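subagent[fold] <- orchestrator: predict structure for attached chain, return tokens only, no commentary.
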Amino acid sequence: MTTVLSATLSGGMARGQHATIARGALLLLVAAGAVAGMVATGGDASAQAMADSGADLTRLLRAMAAIKALMAAGAVAAVLWRLGAAVTLPWFAAYALAAIGMAAGPGLIWGMAHVVAGAALLHAGLIAAIVLLWRDPAVGQCLAVLVAARRAAWGG
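subagent[fold] -> orchestrator:
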């Protein structure tokens, strides 16, 4: 898969194949990050943290973890949109690291034993994804094409 991904990301395949493989690879990495976040806290540590926190705080933090998972899903969707165009391996690696952190964060919060680490991972991943999307020159080009198409459709 590494060879296929390297060829894909370096432009050795057709555009449609590139997007499918890059997006699929990112989704696998995000799923692995989410699973890692969920299983990183052992059952005993999680149970002890919930007992120490109480039922009300546990419900609150788990609701926050669910909301943070939705925020991460939105940011991952933006990264998946970005991967519809050609991307170099360093850019893909940076996007993947940001997405993995965002995916692992809510799982750590859900386990209750590593709330601070989970929040730090999630927010670092969100900030990294925003900065990457802001600084990526291909995003500006894609957005310019979308704006031009929309203006043409409106007759402006």
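orchestrator: received. Logging for downstream: The chain is about 85% helix and 0% strand. The chain has a mean pLDDT of 85.
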